[in-house]
Amino acid sequence: MANRYAGTEAERGALDAYVKLWRAAHAVEVAANRHLMDHNLTTSQFAVLEALYHLGPLSQRHLADKILRSSGNLTMVIDNLERDGLVRRERVPSDRRVVSVTLTAAGQALIARVLPKHVQGIHDIFGVLDSAELASLSALTRKLGHAVSRRLDADALRPLGRGRPGALPES
């Protein structure tokens, strides 16, 4: 391990894995999304179009959960997609507080053109892994993601105070 942290071997191993995972994820994201600029799309805009393409109309809240973006950021993304005629917002008749986002015909046509190239790019990136390595990577990242999500959910349920991430120190 190439870090100088003086913690335990397990801590150094976790730190090393974290750095490698973060760097690899960043490199994969940049490489996989580079072609989006050719279509004047940001990564977030593409994520919205792709989610709507596969899942159909979604509320802004469900979209934010699906694409892992804050609702504030998502509002701006949807504003821009709506301005470009790629999505439309509609109030849900059964609950007027909820706004549903839907692909327009232009949005469907664009994602149908962009998605195959995106999938091919991802396939090319992961081509360095054989099928067993790919399955292992998928299983390990799923396991890690679920464990972290459970921990975050448990932290959110704990009362504010000492030991809770983000809590103010007690005086």
Describe the protein.
The chain has 171 residues and is mainly α. The protein has a single domain (11-155), classed as Arc Repressor Mutant, subunit A (Orthogonal Bundle). The protein is built from 6 helices and 3 strands, in the order ααβααββαα. It has helices spanning 9-33, 43-55, 60-67, 71-83, 105-125, 131-157; strands at 58-59, 87-92, 95-103. The chain has a 3-stranded antiparallel sheet. Strand 2 (87-92) and strand 3 (95-103) form a beta hairpin. Helix 2 crosses helix 5 (105-125). The longest helix is centred in the C-terminal third of the chain and has 27 residues, at 131-157. The radius of gyration is 20 Å and the shape is globular. The relative contact order is 0.09.
What secondary-structure arrangement, pairings included, does this model have?
Blueprint: H1 9-33, H2 43-55, E1 58-59, H3 60-67, H4 71-83, E2 87-92, E3 95-103, H5 105-125, H6 131-157
Antiparallel strand pairs: 1-3, 2-3
